[in-house]
């Protein structure tokens, strides 16, 4: 069964390749959605896919790429429609 989650990632997650890393990781796991920077220095993502793949992506997001220092990942279930594929969006 497919699910959708909104993630808010805080810490040192901007300027460290976090969005591109998230996109590559999501595509490898066959997870749909998007990722973008927020003006408050956090990163947010909307992820959609099979529960086991989402769990793996969330686990990896808690670590991020080598230069990142993740403080927290806030996970909120949601019902938003997600287009196929995974995109890196502009800052909101």
Automatic annotation (TrEMBL):
Enzyme category, top tier: hydrolase
Pfam families named in the record: Acylphosphatase
Tree of life domain: Bacteria
Acylphosphatase-like domain sequence ranges: 4-90
Residues the record marks as active site: 19, 37
PANTHER family per the UniProt record, alphabetical: ACYLPHOSPHATASE
Listed name of the protein: acylphosphatase
Species of the source: Terasakiella brassicae
Gene that this polypeptide is encoded by: acyP
